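Lecture notes, unit on protein representations.

Consider one protein chain, 178 amino acids long.
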Amino acid sequence: MSPTELTAHIPSLRRYARALTGDAWAADDLVQDTLERACSKWRLWTVGTNLRAWLFTLMHHLHASQARQDSRRSAMLPLVNVDDVEAELVAPVAADGLALDLQRCLLQLPEEQRAVLLLVSLEDMSYAQVARITGAPIGTVMSRLSRARSRLLALLNAPGSAEHVDAGAGAPRLKRLK
């Protein structure tokens, strides 16, 4: 693995990490951790195999591990009633479309559904690649993707979302992906 091969995948790693975490700082930290892990564990990568898939697998496992640690830490924090802060969670209507609302809705998806949806739609990976990265059977990947798409569509069409509010003004409708 040469540095050039590794750096060629940084933009897609950053894009996936940003969509996965919803936060630029956390995404950059996740990419950094992934690259550090790749450099320290480079002997585990088999030459001739898909480096991109290996890097995404590392990132997926790191993110899952960090999420478990965060959930353990948050168990000690006081709970906040979502209904009390609902106004703060509603994304403002963006002039350039649904970008902010889409990000808010993506973050409401369960972690495993969001990861599969992002890998298939954002990173254009095959079901088999996603299955290898997530460690889930292909059938599970397909059902998670289906549930994620349905849930995302429901969230975007819910009252308070930018699309729902602007529906009478000719806002774009979501296309169903196959």
